[in-house]
Amino acid sequence: MTQIDLETTAPVQAKPAARRSSYVNKVMTSPTAIIGLVWLLLVVISAIFADVLSPYSPLQNDLRATFQLPSWAHPLGTDQLGRDILSRLMHGAGEALLGSILAVVVAVSVGLPLGLLSGYYGGTISLLANRFADLLLTIPAIIVLLAVLAVFGNNMYLAMVALGVLLSAGFLRLSTSTTQGVARELFVDAARVFGVRDLRILVRHVLPNMIGPVVVQASMTLGIALLLQSGLSFLGLGVRAPFPSWGQMVAEASMQVYTQPWLMVPAGGAIALTTLAFNFIGDAARDALPQAQRGNLLAPASTGIAKQNANVAPVPSDVALSVRNLDVSYADADGNQISIVRNVSFDLKRGTTLGLVGESGSGKTMTALAILGLLPTPLQISGGNVLLDDKDLAGAGESGYQGIRGRRIALISQEPMAALDPCFKVKTLLRGPLMRFRGLSRREADVVGLKLLETVGMRNPKGVFESYPHQLSGGMAQRVAIAWALAGQPDVLIADEPTTALDVTVEAGILDLLRDLQAEFGMSIVLVTHDLGVVADICHEVAVMRDGQIVEHAPVDDIFNSPRHDYTQVLLSHANALERDLGVA
Amino acid sequence: MLWFVTKRLLTAIPTLLIITSLTFLLVYFLPGDAAQTILGDQATPEQLTQVRQELGLDQPLGTQYVAYLGDLVRGEFGHSLVTKQSVLQAIGQRSTVTLTLAIGATVFSALIGIGLGMWASLKGGTVDRVLRTVTSMGMAIPSFWGGLLLVLLFAVTLNLLPANGYVAFGKSPSKWALSLILPIIAISIAAISTLTRQTRASFQEVLGKDFIRSLRASGLPVYVIAFKHGLRNAAIPVITVIGLQFVALLGGAVITEQVFALPGIGQLVVNAVQQRDIPVVQGVVVYITVVVLLVNLTLDLVQGWLNPKVRLS
Amino acid sequence: MTTSQTNRGMLAAVGMTLAISFAGYAGDAFAQDTTITVGVQRAPNSFDPLLSVWGGQYQMYLLPVYEPLIRQSTDGTYLPGLAVEWGYVDDANLQFQLKLREGVTFSDGTTPVNAAAVKQNLDRLFEVTGPQTKELADSLDSVEATDDLTVIVKLKTQNPDFQRIISQLSGMIVNPSALAEAANLANNPAGAGPYLLDTANTIINDTYVYTKNPNYYDPAAYSYETITMKVYADQNAMLTALQSGVAQLGYGGPDNVEVAKRSGLQVVQQPTNVFHLVISDRDGAVAPALADERVRQALNYAVDREAILAAIYRGEGTITTQIFAPNTNAYDPALDTFYDYNPEKAKQLLADAGYADGFTFSVANLFPQRDGDYVQAVAAYLADVGVTMNIASLAGQAPDAALLRQHSAFVNGFGGQGAFTDAKTLFLSKGTVFNAFSSEDPELNQLWSDAAAQSDDAAQAAGFQKLSRALTEKAWFLPTTVVNAVAYYREDALQDVKMTPGVTVPLFYELRNK
Question: Which residues 252-281 of B are in CB contact (within 8 Å) with A?
Fold first, then answer.
């Protein structure tokens, strides 16, 4: 029984105007959803019109025609009393569906409002609602249902109401998290400012965003309710023989399982297929929801470009890394290649820093990640070369990066905290490259690791060594990340906005550190940034990127003193203006 | 860590209190006179008095409640109205089977489900799509039906495994294990499917995190990242799901015991429900709640061990 | 269950899931010479002999722990039990003397089985109300212990079934020291039988384990070290248990006779139980229509007994319209077909009685697992003549007159002990399970008294047959089928299992291992 669904995430971006029709369209075009809906429609129709449609009365015995296999007269055969199985299935469908729907309706009507309130108001309401959900999740549904049946006699619908209350926990949690997400969105704040009443906000803005996730949860819950209900009637509870119920039909079939195995198929199949239909619809509804960014470890970094790169000009000896005509793209839903980075080329001279500058979306970060073969799926290198010495990394595949990542080229990323695995201590992280690339034992690695932490200016290296990432400040975390990057003694360091997430004072320290390290170890650095102040501070050369292309590439002084490209000029004026307004970028 | 455990134990108390109160009130939810409902219309006055006494109905509500809680604390769960056996003894005799089944199935489905989930997530493509459909089906198969089909195939047709019955571990460990294979598989099908999906989702999300990129950039091989870092991070939410699965599997065990003629809590409570043997029903509800709370506590500890943020905050 | 066992169990569960081994499982791996596992359909309601439900399966639970006064053999004669000599000592057959075995003690090893103990037990018949106590108590005058080992039972009226009765539940002698706390007997039997109930390993309602009684008077008589009785509510579970050797003997219905034979199990069966509806509301207290004899006859005409026999009981039995079983002296073959299958006549009778549009009544089904299909089949036939019979499933509930008074009829399968007793059980005693509404009919009473007074066997049989005919005409019951009692056993574990007349199961003391 899934009540917390890790597959369904709260909407990544809430939309003020619900695009419901497109969502429904998306669900309805999924083949599994269509299969599920068609089956459900059949079940619903046969349940509603059972009296008219079923070939026989579900109670009509024919003791002289028992255990018949499927035939024209009895499409699903007959049971131990010669009753037509199809007719019994059709008449049993109503109870099965009504019971499950009842449970889900109760679950939604209890869970959704509570979740809305708890997500919107937070505080005590949220606390109480959460405890309520926890409580419900602690109780095995079947035991409660048995207790309800014991007390109230064999009343299946009452049991289903009780089940609904238990299952409301899932809806409560889901609607709480969705509401929290939406409530934080700007437009809700805006609505509040304009004096819109809370209820109106909930109904107009929050509720529409919840429809998708609730549909997913509801269809899965319908399946769960159906399974539990048929389990109870399998046990003979809530059953009123001779009236058919699906679970009871399985129980009856089980009595003949050795002599008449066919009997197991129709009733069990009906339960399984109907549950499957609910699941299929739920899956399709989930797929239609906006998806969060998800990674894939094994996706190839490049696509079929190894051949075209067979002959390339050799890299000059003073160049640490040469990027030539790099293309990065992805295939959209229709199979069209969409370019993110186009024809980017630059040489990184040994011991220097190259600034890759541009606004967000300009392709600078993707260029940097492409060098390491770490593009997020579905992005891939679709052309060009990444030359380290004379080795082309672009077409080399995952194995080609062996001994390169961490050892020759290291990465420092934007969010230092997010870049460190929260589950492991700093020392564990440092040990990885130290033991792998320097061939150290664990103990030796710890000695070197501590020294590295000192090198990056950590005041309390021992304490940091034994800390988990979440116990560090942002600046400390970035220093740890730098120490980690240094562990493999790389020639090239790729720093992706290394100071963006940090305070100004910390930023200066980190930049100083990078400069010092470059001086000490002679590393070459690719610095990705949107901050021209940082560029001015540390870079030797600058490449300005816009829309996936390098629009200007020049020594740092030329960029600041005589920017040639219009866009560079715009960038510079923006930076000046910001500095005037805020003191920093 | 001690504080962590204490805190978790303390939060379990209100849950336990609410459940026991509801259980206590079970008798009052019986429509009409509880003793009459239990015994039927024509019960003799002596029988009614006796049942009222056994249920404590002849005293004021508050007194009864306090007495009830006191009894529970002392481990006194009362006696069955039907068999006259002590409820605790009845539960004690039968709990091994049910717990072995539920815990065995939880471990089994966690191992398989996490494995398949990782596989789906790492491989992607066809493997992922096929597993998605297969797990959808797995979640749709009623455990009692699946159990019967397993019996038909493995016990009746192939004669590889015993069809039913339970052999005590002390009697013969190998027969004990054989007698549990089919029931455990039967109740695990849905749990495996659920855990496969949830692990896949969780794993996918973790693989999209920045630190995975950093780890790759640090030169760590893919399998170390997947199994050491990915799994550990992905396991944290999955542990919560495993806890929920345990609750579901405990429920599944109740039904599946009927199929495999296993002398567990399920048989006890189903009989009790049919006979309106309220003390037994009450006892089982309280017992199961305690078990679930204990298992959740254990999983909380595992989660705390996996997730330093939880442990150290 | 100790904690360490549980822990080991859990550890092993983990281990097992890691390394599933299919090897090593052989079909008969479970059979062992010194133990036997017997599959039974239902659990005993009480180990107090006087409170136990009557029936072969229930006796199976009690016989190992309680030695009866005398034993019934498979050929219908009686053998010594606690008594070594027994018989009437007067001409009127009203004084029955029992000479007890010397030097026998109860299972506690100290309390002697003597005349006082037997008297105390038989006197309980006057105090305790159990499912079958009334039948004997009504004819019982007094019990005297004339010396340490001699008991004389004085009867008010002749009771032709007296020997049979004291070979069964009423003849099982309880340790007098346990009678002080008789309520404890429910789960803690105390007798002089060859076995003890191993309460530590017994799981009530599921598994009952017996170990040898070291104080039994004839220790060599039984070879099994332990006996296990395992409840299988589901016939198929029982069958597979036997097929795989988990159990060596099982009592079941006719459903799986063919499958059992095919899979190499031995099958013994004999016609025993008459399956019927007890139309207990024959005075019309709940459903007034049933007070009319024509209505009850109509119900009897409405049912196709041949079809029921073939479809529900797989042809393992015979049809009947009388309530007395073939092994009783009231049985008259002519009454097997007194009512034919005649829906038209049924409708006519209903119309004559003013129920042309039918009526509704409720039937209780105490054993839905066993009788679910049967009662649904009957209900469908009644529906064909316009009578609606609502089925109330009372699974797991003990038969109880109060419970049954909420319904007009109930489903029953009854094996005869003897016409004298059966008549009392089924309809002469009042306020009992079978006669919940306390119906009474002077004619039936008279016929029974007349028959009981006959000392000549043939004359008595003729008298009881007259009673049976009158009863069939009055249609107090709706009998349909004499169903074979069926027992399955494994040839490799047991030799030549025989059934005792009138008993649904091969009795425990008939079992011999191979």
Answer: 252, 254-255, 258-259, 269-270, 272-274, 276-278, 281
* Mean pLDDT on C426-440: 88
Closest residue by Cα to residue C281 from C361, C184, C166: C361
Per CB-CB distance under 8 Å, the chain C contacts of A59 are 380, 383
Burial letters for A460-474: b for 16+ Cβ neighbours within 10 Å, e otherwise?
ebeebbebbbebbeb
Alpha-carbon distance of B152 to A253, in angstroms, equals: 12
**Mean pLDDT across the stretch B5-25?**
84
Residue contact A272–B141, C-beta within 8 A: yes
The whole-angstrom separation of Cα A470 and Cα A238 is: 53
For C69, the 3-state DSSP assignment is: coil
Which chain A residues contact residue C312 at CB under 8 A? 63, 80
Pairing of strands C35-40, A549-555: unpaired
Torsion angle defined by CA atoms of residues B54, B60, B64 and B65, in that order, rounded to the nearest 10 degrees: 150
Question: What ipTM, to 2 d.p.?
Answer: 0.89
* Nearest neighbour of B40 by CB, restricted to C1, C230, C400: C400
Question: Could you write out the three-class secondary structure of B83-123?
Answer: CCCEHHHHHHHHHHHHHHHHHHHHHHHHHHHHHHHHHHHHH
Binary contact (C311, A82; C-beta < 8 A): yes
Through-space distance between the first and last CA atoms of chain A, rounded to whole angstroms: 50
Distance, CA of A152 to chain centre: 44
Q: Which two tokens stand for residue A162?
A: 């009780």
**Mean pLDDT, residues B122-145:** 90
Contact B56, B278 (CB under 8 A): no
Q: What is the DSSP letter of A530?
A: S
Cβ <8 Å between C376 and A236: no
Partner-chain contact C1 B92, CB within 8 Å: yes
Q: Which two tokens stand for residue C485?
A: 């009692």
Rounded to two decimals, what is the model's pTM? Answer: 0.85
Contact between chains at A64 and C310 (C-beta distance less than 8 A)? yes
Tens digits of residue pLDDT in B72-104: 888 788 888 888 888 998 998 899 899 999 999
B95 to chain C: which residues are within 8 Å by CB?
1, 6
